[in-house]
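Preliminary data (for renewal application), NAP complex.
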Amino acid sequence: MKAIVAMDQAAAAAGITLAERPEPTPAINDVVVEVHASGFVPAEWEWPSTWVDRSGHDRAQAIIGHEFAGVVSSLGYGTTGLSLGQRVFGITDWHRDGTLAEYAAVEARNLAPLPGNVDFTVGASLPISGLTAWQGLFQHGRLQAGQSVLAHGAAGAVGSVVTQLAREFGAYVIGTGRAADRQAALDFGANAFLDLDHEDLDDIGGVDLVFDVIGGDIQGRSASIIRPGGTLVSVVGPVEARPVDGLAVDFVVESVPSQLVEIVDRVRDGRLRTHIGTVATLDDAIPALNPTERRKGKTVIRVRP
Ligand SMILES: NC(=O)c1ccc[n+]([C@@H]2O[C@H](COP(=O)([O-])OP(=O)(O)OC[C@H]3O[C@@H](n4cnc5c(N)ncnc54)[C@H](OP(=O)(O)O)[C@@H]3O)[C@@H](O)[C@H]2O)c1
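Predicted structure:
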């Protein structure tokens, strides 16, 4: 089968190639899925799991991509809950071969049914950004209606879902980003917008929850405006700055099928809009995954037309 593999950690996106790889076989409790579309997070090069397995061994030429939508094509020994031909979507284990391939072996417990009226491209764009936003706001951030949220990168893949979900749950949302992101962030539902290049975070006053997708100095400045009892949620590695009188949490998203159902239901009824920036075929995936200029929104590779 055709697959996109990572060849060289130092080269990052410049080191990926389209290769021929054996089709996977399903292990215990797995399914193999015929991949129709795969999303991609451009920071995948920075994740340790792209390069070493759980035992610390080199993962030479790993297949990249970890979110996808497709159709179940075979069942492993003992697998229950999914059936052949079923439309599914979800996140695959970070340490296993991924979803930028014609087939992927996945633990059945990581998948949710994809409704028939949701396109595979849309389905593939949802799992990582949707679940990251959901888990950051509601599990780790324990968001309450009426609280205020600082949603960094509000025009980006994760931030746009953070903004929409927080608004739906009754929060006041201040989106951030670059000057050019203002209208997009407001269109995703932000009540206000702060241009990080030209405006000062201190001018916001206080917020109850910071959802950080940027890190560094911006994280440090954001931590200092968190109200007592508030929370800094980071998805960019261990937190470097803590609120004086609050919690700091960093986490890596997990595939939770019940939450995938919540997310896709909102896409179906129009409460949630996914932010897809680029769609390309598997044959044209290399330039799409290694763009020469910055692109907005999720890149989705359409594996089957
Ligand atoms: N821990 C987890 O489970 C998890 C899950 C998903 C994502 N992540 C991480 O979260 C980060 C964001 O992912 P994403 O898919 O949402 O990326 P994305 O679509 O590129 O969104 C990031 C947004 O933040 C903006 N931004 C970044 N740095 C900025 C700065 N210094 N000033 C102003 N705006 C800035 C970007 O603007 P520009 O494009 O103009 O820079 C973009 O609009 C990545 O590092 C990713 O690895 C972690």
